[in-house]
Amino acid sequence: MWAAQGLDGYSYAWASEDRRAVAIAGPALSSRDRLAVWGASDAAVPLVRRVLAKVGPTYRPLGDSALIDALVHGIPTLNHVGSFGWMDCTSPAGCSVPGPSRAEWLPETTLPEVETLVEASFPASYAKPGVPGVERWAGVRDDGGRLAAVGALAWSAPTVGFLAGIAVQPQTRSQGLGRQVCNFLLAEALRLHGAAALMVNDWNHAALRLYLGMGLRYRPLRAASVST
């Protein structure tokens, strides 16, 4: 459902002739043109080949690891570009959403502080202040009043709130401030959308432990790109 957002004219969907594979093209979804793919690999390969010819080489196929492997094997112009995890929660009962914490929504006047923190602590983040699709930032301050941890809801679909841009000042890590921000955003995503999700790099073991500890479920994904 996250990838299917915007099927009102901004995103487009295709199905194979036998309906065993589906591809959805979402422009600027989490800062990239993405082509989410589901279904049987033998049906998905010709479908993705046809769709890429329509939407162009900026779109990156995204899906379950085995399916992306099959696409790369079957379409010579595709190459692997990364492995990561999709993590989600569809019920407050299945997630760790504790009581009130110091995390809160941040006013727009604090966005320069947010940008400084994200650039210093997580410069590779797709979610940054001013990036299209980034909706609202939350944060928590340390005892000295300095912004110590932030995160955002970004690129959310009507039925899935998407967490992104989680960043913590290096000197305040291991104090639980990042978890406070994550729990706040998780609760808000569930309240506003009914489900919550995020993406995490497989090498980020600390983040994986945090999100698994919060009750989010892990699903391995891969992405591919078109050689130019």
From TrEMBL:
<dbReference type="InterPro" id="IPR016181">
    <property type="entry name" value="Acyl_CoA_acyltransferase"/>
</dbReference>
<dbReference type="GO" id="GO:0016747">
    <property type="term" value="F:acyltransferase activity, transferring groups other than amino-acyl groups"/>
</dbReference>
<feature type="domain" description="N-acetyltransferase">
    <location>
        <begin position="101"/>
        <end position="228"/>
    </location>
</feature>
<protein>
    <submittedName>
        <fullName>GNAT family N-acetyltransferase</fullName>
    </submittedName>
</protein>
<dbReference type="InterPro" id="IPR000182">
    <property type="entry name" value="GNAT_dom"/>
</dbReference>
<dbReference type="Pfam" id="PF00583">
    <property type="entry name" value="Acetyltransf_1"/>
</dbReference>
<keyword id="KW-0808">Transferase</keyword>
